[in-house]
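Incident log entry.

Two folding requests arrived from the same account within the same minute. Monitoring flagged them as a possible duplicate submission, but the sequences differ. Recording both here for audit purposes.

Request one:
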Amino acid sequence: MARTVNPLKFIQEVRGEVAKVVWPTRREVVLTTIMVFIMAALTAVFFALVDILIRAGLQGVLTFFG
């Protein structure tokens, strides 16, 4: 069964919900952005080290059996 939606009521409800949103402060945005960049850098370093270790291990195994 199809419902008819009143566009004006919908817009009023959307405005009411948006008014409830707690927007972050500029300081919070800056700090979380910095934390994201730090975590991305740490993750990149971790996976680079894992890649180097796996590559060295495989080269060692292939050299031993090659």
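Request two (distinct sequence, not a duplicate):
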Amino acid sequence: MKVLMVDVDGVLVHGRPSDGLPFATDLERDLGLSVEVLQREFFKCHWPDIVTGREPIEPRLSAVLQEIAPHLEAETLLQYWFENDSRLDPKLIDDLAAVRETGLALYLATNQEHRRAAWLMDELGLARHFDGIFYSAKFGHRKPAQDFFRLATTEAGASPDEILFLDDTLENVEAARVFGWNAVHWAAGMVLETAIAPFMATEENR
């Protein structure tokens, strides 16, 4: 293996820093906005275009908030979201660092819009731990689309069989395997060394 691709939400990041609950658990209490209304009026209608980079998040979110929560600025909601969806798995971060020291390149492979992708790297500090980020808004395709894996492979400068991928969504794992990546369906409680050992052993035996 030359490259290890890691999903963000559900693998590396798990909800609120304080307790791991979803970022919007107390949204109505804190910002006066119902999460159900936000899901219905914003995420359900507009997220597909935003997460694939066809539309920037700020103007669309601002327009929706004018209708459903006129007291709330888009920037306020974005910062609340990002800060409350940022609980890193410290054990996995340490284990990934050890793997990186062996010469394996580390990349994030994630469905994100532009703002949060930048925030994850710059504000949360993942740029210190990874060689880069491949994300859906940049590519114009989201996992599990085959074009996502094709573009990430090209950007990584590796062949599909040289890439190992961790994702908590089975559909994404299966799609990556179809493209030719090696892939692990990540679940709570898994240990990185154990999860990737079969693939590393295969590499050593070549």
